[in-house]
Amino acid sequence: ACADNYDYDAARNRCERCHGARETLTRAGNLAAIVSLAAILIILSLNRFGIRSYWAIVMVALNCKGQARGEDCNLQVIEDVIDTVDEDAAVDDGKAKDGGVMLDEARAARSVAAANATTDEAGDASTVTGRRHVHKKIITKLKIVVAAWQISAAAETAFPQVHFPQVFAEVARLGGVLGLGIFDVGSLDCVMGWGYLQKLVFVTVAPVLLVVLGAGIYRWYLRRTAETHLFVPNVTYATLLFVYVCIPGISNYVITYFACWSFDRGRDSGGPSDLRFISSQLDFKCGGERYHSWAGYDATMIVLWPVGVTVAVGLVLWRHRRALNPDVPCSKDSDYPTDTPIFAREVRRHATAMRELDKFTKRESDASIAALEFLFEEYEPRCFMFPVFELARRLFLSSAVAAFYPGSAQQVVVAMFGAMISYFVYAYFEPYMEDNDDTVSAVAQAQVVLTYFAAVVVYVTDETQQKQGVFSSATFGVFLVLVFFSSFLAAVYVTLLDVFGDENVRRFSNWCLVEAPRRLSSRCVGALRQVPYVAPQESTVKDQEDGGTNWGQEDDEAARPSIAGMESSSFKDPDAVFLVQES
To answer: What is the mean pLDDT of residues 339-359?
Structure first.
């Protein structure tokens, strides 16, 4: 709780003096001007050679990974698009015969269409995952990483009794911007003089207004382009994406209204034995007429946001269950022998995989559920209800635990128990279409479990006053930071594997981690071995009496090779000579 004219800065974890309205607006205007100018320059520079054609080159190159190895990977298509860019870029703006059109975008579009048609013709099981658009694969991994970051960042704010290392606390507060602090309107306290109740209304109403405003602007844009048929699927997809990101922050704000901390007033206070304040707003008392009058509004927002959104998602998915998990005929029995248990198990696994493949193909061709694609696009048909579990998991671990006996050991233990259940559920079902996504999910679940385990360990360490242990050191904080970014690093690695191929990435990694250090070390060792070693001579009695310290200086200088001699005879590698000279 900050004093008047002060605002809480979550990044610095302290109260900062409020800036005036004029200074705040000036800073915001300067930032908007810089971003707008940079965007205009980028658009103009790309427009000089045609934005769509360059984007076509990138998408064709990335989609080539979806084809089986050994094919030409539509290299001719890429060459056609590149030739189009080069030819049309050489035409003058004023001399173009077609009225100044710099780029034959129709030709590039036909090339991309041919590439997509060729890719869609590949029907074997090895190329099914490649047919998913690249941006959808990236969005799936981002959803996994953002969810892990939101939950890990919530551990720092939901457990005030746990004193994490400072380096991890700062990283977690910055990571909270990805969801928990997306509607952090602390600066508005200074500009508009808002209190806790005004911020509560803003956090619960602003998302709806933003969705309505964005939908209206997009509808106006589509009317100008005569593509109004894209309004419903695109707006639905964008709305679900927006709700996916901001729902933990909204839920955390409305749920903590009923999470109260108690403070002892002392025996001689003459009043109640303790004071109770809202855990997220320590200048707002739990109790009194104002608190109870707003309790109904907050309870309504809990029903509409965390509970209502989860139930609505479940009802929508269940209503379209036949399209999400369609019935397909069972495949014929395999000719492999099934009398051995290992063969029977593998045959069943193969039959299940082929059936899921048929369901996925049928689901992809169903236009009735295209608007809901954001919810189920990354899950296998058999796990079509998994988005409900994922949403409930995020809300429980990031918001609900904040209201469960706040400040107690039970709160940390319950959160740890929920993280472990989530880990085992994902490990058992492996719900994602692609194995790479299951790998990233496993790392993300392990990240959450380790973070909450660290919360338990740090809490026990503080309670037992073991200030000199390893869990109180800065090294443990660095370890937690690495855990915090583990899911992101795993997502980047598997994305590189998906785009460039396993062999290329492994070859490059092997060169960076093994081959390059080996070559460098061999050069260094080889150069040092060429330097003759001269043992120091013992000083004579006369030198000791005279106080001299030049033991055998003449012999040493005679034995020391010259740089010219190194370059001419002793060293054949100029890099080795350079290393010796530097040494």
So the answer is: 79
